[in-house]
Amino acid sequence: MKFSIPLNLIFCLLLNCLLTHSAALAEDDWRVWRGPTSNGIAKAGETPPVEWNESKNIRWKTPVPGRGHSSPIVVNDQILITSADEKRQVQSVVCFDRASGKQLWKTEVNQGRFAPKIHSKNTHASPTLASNGEAVFAVFSHNESIQVTALDLEGNQQWQIRAGSFVPRAYQFGYAPSPILYEGKVIVAAEFEVNGFVAAFDQQTGKEVWRIKRPKKLNFSTPVVAHISGRDQLLLSGDAKVASFDPKTGRELWSTPSIWVVSCGTMVWDEDLVFASGGFPTKGTIAVKADGSGKVVWKNRVKCYEQSMLAYQGYLYAVDDNGIAYCWNAQTGEEQWKYRLGGKVSSSLVLANECLYLSNEQGKTFVFRTNPKKFELVAENQLGDECFATPALCGNQIFHRAANRSSGTRKETLYCIGK
Fold this sequence. Notes:
single chain, 419 residues, mainly beta, Lipocalin, four-stranded antiparallel sheet, 32 strands, 5% helix, globular
């Protein structure tokens, strides 16, 4: 007796399998700077390794063309980064296969007209990409302007716009802020001495949705959207202020003075408080009520200039420029502990499975517990001899970008670290 299944039923079953597979992959994506919740914390249940080296717990490693400090993002079965060929003056988006590390495609976005001078620790590909799962958005400083480019996940350009000018003069350090996404918009910040701005553009078309002018001061922070004090707030540190804006319109909601002018890190939050740190010309870290009162709840003189902090379960964790780790009570500012990890630090903290991960500029990654009672080191792991990018943690794996100069020629590598 023969049994046949209607073709339309077979098609529906196959389609359901594909959609289920895609949804499962999307659940552990790391699509934007600072991950799925925009605060450096991996989703619950992630258990990436805590120990590795060049031969231990390395699933794959692959060479990265060019140079860049952008962090990897993970979208379905792809790993995407930006990179710059400084000799040819080409800025590109590069895509790798998540399972094997094989380079799938490379799209050249801009060519020529690089800024003649940037900080020695910066690159022409420092902002991290952002993806909504269907497109990927790249932001580069190019030809004295900030350009935003949308690509599909096969590397085809969908649109490209000039978001605004970028011609810093007093401090020619280059560009750093990453794009962020909110309700169909891609939001971009560019702050310098003349025409600084924060602006939002439609993800489908690149059409401008709103724009706010920023004061004539240099700044490097990436903004972030947090739901805090009962509403979505676009948080941004810099211009001698800690400020909040409506991410739908760009309208300022509140601001309060800070003790520094310039910052680089992305703000974090806990309950009704937001936290920011800066380092020029003075240094300090502050906690501010996000209810519109502008009340400074506590402050100290610790300088987390380039690094973003991490708030978790009532405590604020931070690592300063010189590699000293801190834990403070988030609500009171009371110091729980501090510990010298060692080495200069430019990357930011990330967290998974109750462990914090932090890489220094010499390629060493420290893993330590989220233990507010005492500093508890888990492991020290070395890959290469240079690291400025923050890793992505998802799928029980770590996607890590590092470089090695031991051969006399700088070579970048993208690693998949997993058991």
